[in-house]
From TrEMBL:
PANTHER family per record: SEPTIN
Septin-type G domain segment(s): 54-323
Pfam families assigned: Septin
Keywords from the named record: Coiled coil, GTP-binding, Nucleotide-binding
Ranges in a coiled coil: 355-400
Cited SUPFAM superfamilies: P-loop containing nucleoside triphosphate hydrolases (SSF52540)
Identification of the protein by name: Septin domain-containing protein
Organism: Rozella allomycis (strain CSF55)
CC per GO annotation: cell cortex; septin cytoskeleton
Superkingdom, natural source: Eukaryota
One Gene Ontology term of the molecular function aspect: GTP binding
Family: Belongs to the TRAFAC class TrmE-Era-EngA-EngB-Septin-like GTPase superfamily. Septin GTPase family.
Length: 405
């Protein structure tokens, strides 16, 4: 009995979506042993060789208050003087700047095109809410540029990827609790990019203070449902179990080398001793570097790029296309697939579903942001009131001194 033919429309709409297409599936393959050398085993080598020649793009953004050692840490992470320390004049602190610089790093024949996006001016003002706008706008713009390349379908071997793959958020080492303004910033950014929280200048905290501060930060992040990497983007929790106790990472950055017992190490000398950047008893730097750079574990640079594409970029893409009333397309850039077309009924159902989910999420975020804003305003009012009280006391003391004179 002859197999029924597959309708062409059905085949085009659902190809690749189901592993077993029923009676239209291909027949079983027949193994063949070649009688002489063909060179099939060279295919993986050729792929690796081609990938080595193509620069690997990785974009990292650093966000945090001025003076937390962001520039020094980036230089320490990549063992290169990528960025120079620059002081900013007072008039330049009125706005947040977005400075993106690219560097080509080569190691063992592998080319890494690293882009470091700095955000000088962030947190220098009392009202940090406006400081977030340029950062969010930059992230969205890079996603939009990538989407434009997909829609153009230019016949190029690969897209230029300027999307932010990782955001290192530097937290001031207060030793007690994370600031409400930091929570507000993290809540706004966590849905757009992979975030790794970092406690800056951790050498200013004792070992006990680090533990207390880390626990306080994690409890607050869980309470506010703020997603961080890799906690909320990991399929294999066992692979990061040895790193979970170190999140958020308490780090120390240093570009200088000091000699200890005849060995030169990257560290800083103090009156009470020497800070070794790569000593896990002094800093979590090696654990953070392992999380980002290690290829022996499941977490590495490529995983950050994939999660950016599959989670954050796809979320932006869906929302952007809905808001602009554009026909939804499914383009998988990493596979080079041009996408699969769905019928209008299914497309309309998906649009309604996404719109409903988006509306609920916006209401939830609005309520959370209103609560954070209220707490921040109360904190500011309390600070102003305390300042006025102190000024009043100083005024009274001045009057008493005048009487005594």
């Amino acid at each position: 009995m002859a197999k029924p033919s597959m309708p062409l429309e059905y085949a085009l709409q659902f190809r690749g979506r189901f592993p077993d297409p029923g009676p239209w599936k291909l027949g079983s393959t027949k193994p063949i042993n070649t009688k002489s050398y063909v060179g099939v085993d060279n295919a993986p080598k050729q792929y690796v060789s081609r990938q080595r020649r193509r620069p690997y793009a990785f974009n990292v953004m650093v966000v945090g208050e001025s003076g937390l050692g962001k520039t020094t840490f980036i230089n320490t992470l990549f063992h290169s003087v990528l960025k120079e320390q620059k002081s900013r004049p007072l008039e330049s602190t009125k706005t947040v700047e977005i400075n993106a610089k690219s560097y080509d790093l080569t190691e063992s024949g592998v080319h890494l095109r690293l882009s470091v996006i700095d955000t000088p001016g962030f947190g220098d003002r009392m009202n940090r809410y406006e400081d977030l706008n340029p950062i969010i706008e930059y992230i969205d713009t890079q996603n939009q540029n990538y989407l434009q390349q997909e829609q153009n379908r230019n016949p190029r071997p690969y897209f230029k990827d300027s999307r932010v793959h990782l955001l290192l958020y530097f937290i001031s080492p207060t030793g007690k609790r994370i600031k409400d303004l930091d929570i507000f910033s993290l809540s706004k950014l966590s849905g757009k990019v992979n975030i790794i929280p970092v406690i800056a200048k951790s050498d200013t905290l004792t070992a006990d203070e680090k533990i207390v501060f880390k626990n306080a930060i994690m409890k607050r992040l869980e309470k506010e449902d703020i997603k961080i990497y890799p906690y909320n983007y990991c399929d294999d929790r066992a692979s990061i179990s040895h790193l979970e106790t170190h999140i958020p990472f308490a780090v120390v950055g240093c570009n200088t080398l000091v000699e200890v017992n005849g060995k030169r190490i990257r560290g800083r000398a103090h009156r009470w001793g020497i800070i070794d950047v790569e000593n896990e008893q002094h800093s979590d730097f090696i654990h953070l570097r392992e999380l980002i750079m290690s290829v022996t574990k499941s977490r590495n640079l490529n995983d950050l790029v994939i999660s950016t594409n599959d989670i954050h970029y796809n979320s932006f893409r869906t929302t952007y296309l809905q808001q602009n009333d554009t026909k939804i397309k499914s383009v998988e850039a990493f596979e080079g697939d041009s996408g699969r077309h769905q019928n209008s009924t299914e497309e309309e159902r998906l649009k309604n579903t996404y719109a409903s989910m988006l509306k609920n999420k916006e209401e939830e975020l609005k309520k959370r942001n209103d609560d954070l804003l209220k707490n921040a305003e109360e904190s500011i009012k309390s600070t102003i009131k305390e300042k006025e009280s102190i000024e009043e006391e100083i005024k009274k003391l001045d009057e008493q001194l005048k009487i005594l004179e």
